[in-house]
Write a structure and sequence with these properties.
single chain, alpha/beta, FAD/NAD(P)-binding domain, D-Amino Acid Oxidase, Chain A, domain 2, eight-stranded mixed sheet, six-stranded mixed sheet, about 25% strand, binds flavin-adenine dinucleotide, FAD-dep_OxRdtase, transmembrane helix, Rhodanese domain-containing protein, membrane, Rhodanese-like_dom
């Protein structure tokens, strides 16, 4: 079977769907989104998402800030409620070094328009009464941060895209990106050949594999992130908690369960296996910080795979030497926070042929040569 489209997007995660929406909103709706599994099978459907702006580099804070603004506007944009609850998030320090670092970042975040408050331990205790004050030296609180329902965000996009005429093909894997004479020609799947002058690799942690078929090497490492959820509890802790000290987070979800996860992982493990090691590790840390959790039941565990780059920044933009091939990957631990900005900027790049300044720090060029 032979098909054609103006744009083929490989990957039906939040980056692929978000980009399809941005392009369709600019009048390009002859788009096919290929997803090798069901929508949400990748990290976008496995993240207990905290939209958080506790970033430390200017360009990343700018992306995160747009993320919050867009999440607030999403019900109007998609005519779909992403259930975005803005109870803020707090980044906790347990050592003087961490507190100094947080203080520095608070200055940078405020200078870029992200309202961040530096809090003393007693102020944190007021905000989170069950916290063990002895374990904290201070923290940074961002009131506008929040938690959406990732499936509502994903399926809000699916609904909107379907109305806009975009074709989403779940359970269709892109096998090869076809390139001839330095130009992208299309994508081969098991049952069809899709001709398209523009291909976007938004394949998450596995973006490197499909890029290789076009002769393009990208330094993306798939990394496992594990999570557990507790039984449902009465609403008890409003802000999401991030521990700078322990590389872990916990946040109460809409239905009352707490999701606890970590941003530390064994490098390069691309499997979806849950481990007893993680269960023990995270339980110990959470109970140290909030002793009452010793009495809370753990209900489930799962894992997701994210794509991480050597400089921990996404790779977004056109590939030199392969006309029509774009990369939108390497979103790491913050892809949900960054998706509104990176997909808007990439859509601008694709439609105008000019790379917006904000996108330049994320160009694939930095890894060429
Ligand atoms: C446990 C966990 C917690 C997280 N917490 C947060 C958080 O609190 N805040 C935040 O902002 N972010 C968080 N993230 C990160 C965020 O989820 C990711 O950065 C984001 O979802 C990346 O989106 P994506 O579309 O690039 O990738 P994915 O969602 O992984 O989508 C890529 C898709 O491409 C498909 N695919 C791959 N190869 C092919 C192929 N050859 N053909 C067709 N389809 C293909 C995959 O099946 C997949 O569905 C978390 C991630 C995890 C795993």
């Amino acid at each position: 079977m032979s098909d054609k489209a103006e744009v083929v997007i490989i990957g039906g995660g939040i980056i692929g769907l978000g980009l399809a929406w941005q392009l369709a909103d600019r009048g390009i709706n002859d788009i096919i989104v290929l997803e090798k599994g069901y929508i949400g099978v990748g990290s976008s459907g496995r993240a207990p998402v905290i939209i958080n702006q506790h970033r430390t580099r200017k360009e990343m804070i700018t992306l995160a800030k747009e993320g919050v603004k867009t999440l607030e506007e999403l019900p109007t944009r998609l005519e779909f409620n992403p259930l975005f609850r803005q109870d803020g998030s707090i980044n906790l320090a347990s050592t003087q070094e961490e507190f100094d670092e947080i203080r520095k970042n608070v200055g940078l975040q405020n200078s870029l328009g992200v309202k961040t408050e530096l809090l003393e331990p007693h102020e944190i205790k007021e905000l989170i009464p069950p916290i063990n004050e002895e374990k904290i030296l201070g923290g940074a609180f961002i009131p506008s941060d929040g938690i959406p329902n990732p499936y509502a965000v994903l399926f809000g996009h699916v609904n909107a895209l379907t109305k806009m005429g975009v074709e989403i093909r779940p359970f269709v894997e892109a096998k090869k990106i076809k390139v001839r004479s330095g130009e992208t020609k299309g994508v081969t799947t098991k049952n069809s050949d899709i001709n398209a002058p523009i291909i976007v690799d938004a394949a998450g942690g596995f973006a490197g594999e499909i890029a290789k078929t076009a002769g393009v090497k990208i330094p993306i490492q798939p990394m496992k992130r594990e999570v557990l959820v507790t039984e449902m509890l009465k609403s008890s802790i409003d802000p999401a908690i991030i521990s700078a000290h322990g590389n872990f987070y916990l946040a109460q979800m809409l239905r009352g369960e707490f999701a606890c996860g970590s941003t530390a992982a064994k490098d390069g493990d691309p499997t979806l296996d849950s481990s007893l090691e993680f269960l023990r590790w995270i339980s110990r840390r959470v109970v140290e910080l909030i002793p009452q959790f010793a009495y809370v039941k753990i209900m489930r565990q799962w894992a997701g795979v994210i794509g991480v780059t050597p400089d921990k920044k996404p790779i977004i933009g056109g590939v030199n030497g392969v006309e029509g091939l774009y990369l939108a990957c390497g979103l790491g631990d913050y892809g949900f926070t960054f998706f509104p900005a990176v997909t808007r900027l990439l859509a601008e790049d694709i439609t105008s042929g000019e790379t917006p300044d904000l996108l330049k720090p994320f160009s694939p060029e930095r890894f060429e040569g």
